[in-house]
Design brief:
heterodimer, A: 504 residues, alpha/beta, six-stranded mixed sheet, 17 helices, 22 strands, 32% helix, globular, B: 438 residues, mainly alpha, ABC transporter involved in vitamin B12 uptake, BtuC, three-stranded mixed sheet, transmembrane (chain B)
């Protein structure tokens, strides 16, 4: 089926998320939509899928104008979507998820689960998926959950399938399998829209590429275009894709973690007997697919986890069992994974957010009252130093873009005397320009002789920053390897296979 | 990268992590406290004589069950020893990093209850059938209320207004049944009009809750609390201004007669407790089964649960989230309103100010204690009903425990049940969160 978008415009208040976007996807074509986070790709697809109503423009399928009021109509018209955040109900089985919304019934409204199971099996067989229709979705690995999403779309006879950032949660191997599935679907005549900001994937699978920046189509490119060409189209200026980094000036072991175990509330060992050291002036990157214990590990390092065992020694001082307050005073800087949830108070101003961890005394608090003048000077200085693009220091943090908000977090954490920096997903949801800046600051911190732990699920980021790489899988350390380890080795390690000759 | 593309895909595996048992000393500590209470009763307040458990409903029944006679003090001491053993066993389990199983908690509770009843009833006769029958009756509004709560929370709206819906149902059914029965002269027409009126009243309260919380995104808990206060105020106002001066016409509701079910009602113990009840109770049995089957085996239930767990996912498959929520919250209101009829036409009592006396909140506790499952919530409601009726029965037979103290019993049971036994359970993920579309 041929899909055509004509002059789609979508506004949120004064923000124009999509500005007269035109896009044509031919039948049986894989069309990549490339753009940075916040460029308007997801908004466009939500318009296409009927979740948002466009303010202007029209959608055509096989040259017929479509009018729909909700996702139900879009699905009926033959559009399926594999969402970035899976639209699956975790406590339902695969079959229940697939049948939801178009349930087959035995009469009287009673569910016909056998029919749904058969349908799941039939589609699984067609594409060589191994999916148990009776498995609870929450127990499935994300790669399989994604297949459930695909089955869900196919069970409604989708002719146009939209993949919204599908590889963000996958291991490199799973990503390859997904590409394979996309090609299979294409052979079967399905049109595919593949939304991503990862250049490598685009070049591998796309038939055509459309680049979007700030809500506008800024160009088309052939899959043969180079990474630098695509990146500069995407960002609108020449970008450095690799950080300039000198060889590390290694000092003594600064952070020594041994036998660290974190247990969650139902008794699972989410971090299982993890030991490693980080030396002064070194970046240790922790790689792994999302949800293999990295988050809990960083939380344990700063004392946020309950039910922990093992020891965390920083410069000869045991941090385990100390309060978060004491750990921060010991010189630990922490960039949390989810800045909006754990890093910032959205309704506070930039200045207030910059003093959050120093509210207990001088220089910002004297006699229990906030020293506005001192804080304002400090905030202005930091905003300038970290290049936070804002109306002023009294702007609420919640109004900043992802990149600028992250710079506020970084400014706060780096403006203390640090003896350890822990940064979890430091550039998630951050524009390419800010990524450059944040990476530079992290490397500067390392060069100042601070040990740095960076957690990232993006192999590009790991490769850019790491002096050494520790790979985690199901709470355990698969291995610790040098920073220049090839991607395919890392990919296998992320799936739990230790690299040969890697120090465990 | 592309080299790996051709290789065989590894079979997807279920992610399992190594696990350890998170142990808690909650159960052994609670056991120890209750064992000490039983011991204290035996040591400091010994009571002599025999306790008689009467298991017959009446002398006229076809099958007669002999009374159970227990010597009070020996029984109590035996119970104390057994309780101490269970406590020690549970402490050993926790030390050995094992969980304290649920059946042990149940055995402990039953033993403690038996010991306590035997002690309290020393030298007297405990009418067990009456105790259980009354428990079921007192649980009726709680069960209807908890069904309303289960549906509400499963669809994503916390229904704090159960209390208001019960009260509205009680008020409306009393007035409608009184007026219709006296004007038509038929008690049954009056009773059924009362039922319908109660459902409409509950439905309206549910709709107000739904409209404010779904359409205007007002905090559901706040709307619920305000509705409870509003209904209390309205019914009290109409009671003193309108009902009280015209009690003969407006507030003398007829009563649902008891309808023993043939055969079933002759089964010893079970028959008199479950099958010599009113129509309202029989409808309740059906309602519990219908809500359970409906929630877990029909299209309606699948959609309700989807909307309460992950509204956006439901939206993306074409389910109208807010419409689903609105009508199901309204339905929940109607069910709670129906439950309110128990207070008036169900028991043949005239409406009185604030006569629901917090039943709606106990029902809410039953929802959580029952883990958002209609059947478990019903069992929880029965437990609370039992606690209430135990207090009634003990004061009738002249228990040594001060009646003011006994009045706390249902609420103490509620707190222990919700805080102590429930622990961490997972409710519907989106309960309480409005669904706001861009």
């Amino acid at each position: 089926m041929k899909l055509e978008l004509r002059g789609i415009t979508k506004r949120f208040g004064s923000l124009v998320a999509n500005d007269h976007i035109d896009l044509t996807v031919e039948a049986g074509e894989i069309h990549c939509l490339l753009g940075e986070n916040g460029a308007g790709k997801s908004t466009l697809m939500n318009v296409l899928y009927g979740l948002y109503q466009a303010d202007e423009g029209e959608i055509l399928l096989d040259d017929r104008v479509q009018h729909y009021t909700g996702p139900g109509d879009a699905m009926a018209a033959g559009i399926g979507m594999v969402h970035q955040h899976f639209m699956l109900i975790p406590v339902f089985t695969v079959a229940e998820n697939v049948m939801l919304g178009h349930e087959s019934t035995k009469g009287g409204g009673f569910l016909d689960l056998n029919d749904a199971r058969a349908r799941v099996r039939e589609i699984s067989a067609r594409f060589g998926f191994d999916v148990d229709p009776d498995a609870l979705v929450e127990n499935l690995p994300v790669g399989v959950q994604q297949r459930v999403e695909i089955i869900k779309a196919l069970s409604r006879d989708a002719k146009v399938l939209v993949f919204d950032e599908p590889t963000a949660v996958l291991t490199p191997q799973e990503t390859d399998e997904l590409m394979q599935i996309m090609r299979q679907l294409k052979e079967a005549g399905t049109s595919i829209v593949f939304i991503t900001h990862k250049l490598r994937e685009v070049r591998e699978v796309a038939d055509r590429i459309t680049v979007i920046r700030l809500g506008r189509v800024v160009g088309e490119a052939a899959p043969t275009a180079s990474n630098t060409e695509l990146a500069s189209l995407m960002v609108g200026r020449a970008v450095e894709l690799t950080v300039q980094k000198d060889p590390p000036q290694l000092g003594d072991d600064a952070l020594v973690v041994s036998g660290l175990t974190v247990i969650d509330h139902i008794g699972q060992l989410v971090v299982n007997d993890v030991s490693f050291e980080v030396r002064k002036g070194e970046i240790l990157a922790i790689a792994g697919v999302q949800g293999n214990g990295q988050t809990e590990l960083t939380e344990a390092l700063v004392g946020l986890a309950t039910r922990v065992r093992g020891s965390v020694v920083l410069d000869g001082v045991e941090l385990m069992g100390q309060s978060v307050r004491k750990i921060l005073s010991a010189g630990v800087g922490f960039v949390p994974e989810d800045r909006n949830e754990d890093g910032l108070v959205g309704e506070f101003t930039i200045a207030e957010n910059l003093m959050l961890d120093r509210s207990d005394g001088e220089p910002f608090v004297k006699a229990a009252s906030i020293q506005r003048a001192a804080l304002a000077d400090f905030a202005r200085e930091k905003v300038a130093e970290f290049d936070v693009r804002t109306q002023g220091i009294d702007e609420k943090v919640g109004r900043l873009s992802g990149g600028n908000a992250q710079k506020v977090v970084l400014a706060r954490e780096l403006s203390r005397e640090l003896r350890l920096l822990v940064a979890a997903q430091p550039t998630r949801g951050v524009d390419v320009g800010s990524i450059e800046f944040i990476h530079k600051r992290i490397v500067e911190t390392r060069d100042a002789g601070v040990p740095v732990v960076v957690v990232s699920t993006e192999l590009d980021e790991v490769a850019a920053l790491a002096d050494r790489i520790m790979v985690m899988y199901r709470g355990r350390v698969v291995g610790i390897v040098p920073g220049d380890t090839p991607r395919d080795v890392l990919g296998l390690m992320m799936a739990g296979e230790p690299a040969e000759g890697a120090a465990a | 990268m592309s080299t790996a593309t051709g290789s065989a895909a590894p079979a997807p595996q279920i992610v399992t992590l190594d696990t350890t048992v998170v142990t808690s000393w909650k159960a052994p500590i609670a056991f120890a406290v209750f064992t000490l209470v039983a011991l204290a009763l035996a040591v400091f307040a010994p009571r002599h004589g025999d306790t008689t458990y009467r298991l017959n409903a009446s002398e006229r029944d076809a099958i007669q069950v002999p009374d159970l006679v227990v010597p009070a003090m020996p029984a109590l001491w035996t119970v104390v020893v057994l309780l101490a053993l269970i406590t020690a066993y549970s402490a050993w389990l926790v030390r050995a990093k094992k969980r304290v199983p649920l059946w042990l908690i149940v055995v402990f509770a039953v033993l403690f209850l038996f010991g306590f009843l035997t002690w309290a009833g020393a030298g007297a006769t405990l009418p067990m059938i009456g105790l259980l029958f009354g428990s079921l009756s007192l649980a009726v509004p709680l069960i209807f209320g908890s069904l309303a709560g289960v549906i509400g929370e499963r669809v994503g709206v916390i229904n704090i207004a159960i209390e208001g819906q019960l009260l509205a149902g009680a008020f409306t059914s009393a007035v409608v049944a009184s007026v219709v029965a006296s004007s038509t002269g038929s008690i049954w027409v009056g009773l059924f009009s009362g039922l319908v009126g109660a459902m409409v009243a509950g439905l309206l309260v549910g709709m107000v809750l739904a409209a404010f919380s779904i359409k205007y995104f007002v905090d559901q808990v706040i709307v619920g609390v305000v509705l409870n206060v509003l209904v209390t105020g309205l019914t009290s106002f109409f009671f003193s201004q309108v009902l009280a001066p015209n009690a003969g016409v407006l507030n003398s509701p007829p009563r649902f007669p008891r309808l023993p079910i043939p055969l079933l009602s002759d089964i010893p113990i079970i028959g008199p407790v479950f099958f010599r009840q009113t129509l309202i109770v029989y409808i309740m049995y059906i309602a519990v089964a219908a809500v359970y089957v409906g929630l877990f085996h029909t299209r309606w239930g699948l959609r309700v649960r989807a909307v309460g767990e992950h509204p956006q996912a439901a939206d993306t498959v074409g389910i109208n989230v807010n419409r689903t929520r609105f009508w199901n919250v309204a339905l929940a209101g109607a069910i709670a309103g129906f439950g309110g009829t128990f207070f008036t036409i169900g028991s043949g009592i005239a409406f009185n100010k604030e006569m629901t006396a917090g039943a709606g909140f106990i029902a809410l506790a039953a929802v959580i204690f029952g883990q958002w499952d209609p059947i478990k919530a019903t069992l929880a409601a029965l437990l609370f009903g039992f606690a209430s009726n135990l207090q009634n029965t003990l004061s009738v037979i002249g228990s040594p425990v001060p009646s003011e103290f006994m009045l706390m019993l249902p609420y103490v049971v509620t707190i222990i049940a919700v805080a102590g036994l429930v622990g961490k359970v997972r409710g519907p993920a989106a309960a309480g969160k409005p669904y706001i579309k861009a």
